[in-house]
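REQUEST FORM: STRUCTURE PREDICTION
Request ID: SP-0412
Submitted by: Lab K.M.
Chain count: 1
Length (residues): 248
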Amino acid sequence: MSMPYAPLTQLPPQRHSNISLNEEVRLYSSPKERERYENLAELYSIVVSLDYLEKAFLKDSVSQQEYSSICTRLLSQYNTLLKDEGVQSEFVSLQHFKDKYGLDCSLATQRINVGIPASVVIAPQAASALASTSIGGIDGAGGRSTPTGTEGPSTSRAVAEATGNFITCMDALKLNYSATDQLHPLLGDLMTSLGKVTNKDFSGRDKIVKWLITLNNMKATESITDDQSRQLLFDLDNAYKGFFAELD
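STATUS: Completed
RESULT:
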């Protein structure tokens, strides 16, 4: 048998909030903390933007030149933001950041791990596929194919730029540059300039790409060993010779 309802004679104590509903809720308590959150928000937008860019490139919705330019800029911004110790301590790692904020972005993850645009990595394969569809100087798209060498897109200015970047990289190693944040930008500029000259996979090119990936997976404060520095200089010298052999 249920008991009849009887109202309470005393009301429970009420809890009062000290937060005004008209006040903005701040996520930070100092300008430094605010800057850290803004930088984390920038990193979030870079990862999402990079994922959309990769999808657009796969669908041919963006030209290779536009893709390379935008991708290089986004990767540079990503690495620059992570140089801040406060941001790095909060970021921890890309996987931790993705898990914390519910991001997937698998294509962006792959591109960040590689550290260079896909157009730089796949240039030789793309050129080979295009050459296989060329008949009598007509490319697969129905236009005139351009010979690889010092003609067409391989202008004197582009060759001079690539040569200068080769020399800069080798001089940096001879001056004992070893930190990741010193060498990675130089090798990135070198690969970008090489792509403007030739799409062929000349001798030594693949090793430069591997060095870029190796450096990209290291922290900015980490450095390569003396043995690695010597090997990188050797690989650059061989690639330099292979590059000019390809132009002849």
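NOTES: Residues 31-118 form a domain with the de novo design (two linked rop proteins) fold (CATH 1.20.1440.200).
Reviewed by: T.R.
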